[in-house]
């Protein structure tokens, strides 16, 4: 297998692992808490195992996996703290397994990295309480029947257009766009962006060249 991708199941020791709690092993970059996560996706296939297309050309039909959080109608992509006993790819895979109950093949070329501002420090201009997040693409190969955070996070496969409407923050739409561009689903990107070309309220830090800054 190419060094660009790795199979998450190969670096997860057990399906029956409890979700990690607390921040004793949390990694930091100066005052930024480091987090990692993925945009999980699958390419729909026909009975013969060939990629489906709803566009009438060679573009594959893609779905992405999103998770719910308590008391919210919108949805998010799984992410969480990067700890000091794992690399960033292991952290991303672990968070996806804990929150969404899936495993797969992670592309080591990040979709991007963003700076998120925590809710407790949204009125501060200091990096204290903010997070740096590294987001990757994961092609899902396995869906677990039960997972550590199933009680608080349900999962749902959606089309890219629906994902754009459900995304809570700007960085999620940017990560989704990066994934679809990488998969050459350009038509779906443009169509979905037209549906969600509307103003939103986001707590912003200073802009970076790598992505938007918003709440964790």
Low-confidence spans: 198-216
* Helicity range: 10-25%
Span between termini: 34 Å
Q: What amount of the residues lies in strands?
A: 25-35%
Structural class: alpha+beta
Rounded Rg: 17 Å
Shape: globular
Strand segment tally: 10
For the residues shown, what is the average pLDDT?
Answer: 78
Sketch the major β-sheet: 10 strands, mixed
Write the H/E string, N to C. Answer: EEEEEHEEEEHHHE
How many separate helices? 4
Describe, in plain words, how this protein is organized in 3D.
A hairpin with a 2-residue loop joins strand 2 and strand 3 (32-43). The protein has helices spanning 88-100, 160-166, 170-182, 186-195, and strands spanning 5-7, 28-29, 32-43, 62-67, 79-81, 102-107, 112-117, 130-143, 155-158, 213-215. It is α+β, with helices and mostly antiparallel strands and 216 residues long. It starts with a strand and ends with a strand. Strands 1, 2, 3, 4, 5, 6, 7, 8, 9 and 10 form a 10-stranded mixed β-sheet that branches. The protein is built from 4 helices and 10 strands; from the N terminus they run E-E-E-E-E-H-E-E-E-E-H-H-H-E.
